[in-house]
Structure formats: structure tokens, C-alpha cells
Amino acid sequence: MRIKSLQFHGMMINVYHYHSNDLIMLAIPELFWSIELSKELDANQLYEELVMQLFNLLTEVEADTLASNITDLIRNESKGE
């Protein structure tokens, strides 16, 4: 499991993420939020799924921003950065 800190809404939040053979698991304890996603999702599908799930907790703008940041984080991790 990896932990990355992201700047969000004026505070630092930790994004816990784990990659298995076929799943990506994400958790943000500060938001009491977690999700399991298929590794088969491309970047756009991943982003859309995150926006839909985060929109249950956040405003549309906040969900969009955080989903974009998490998608970038996962894309960079998969590239080995």
C-alpha cells in the first residue's frame, strides 16, 4: 500500500492506494471514503467513476478537482514515477 499526500481545499489529505492484479483500492480517511476499482478502466473511465463517487460527499467542483488529482496520481504510479 502506498500513501500520497494531496493538497485539497486548503489542507493536506492522504490518499491510500493499493494495486493488486486486477483491482485498485483507494481510501481517504479524512473524508471517510474508500473505493475498489477495476484496473481495466482507462484514465477517462477512472476519472468519471471517481467524480461520480466523490460527488456523493463533495460539491461538483471539489469532486472534479479531487478526481483529477487522484487520476493523475494513479497514472503516474502506473508509469513508475
UniProtKB/TrEMBL annotation:
InterPro entries reported for this sequence: Uncharacterised_YueH
Any one Pfam family match given in the protein's UniProt record, by short name: YueH
Protein name, as recorded: YueH family protein
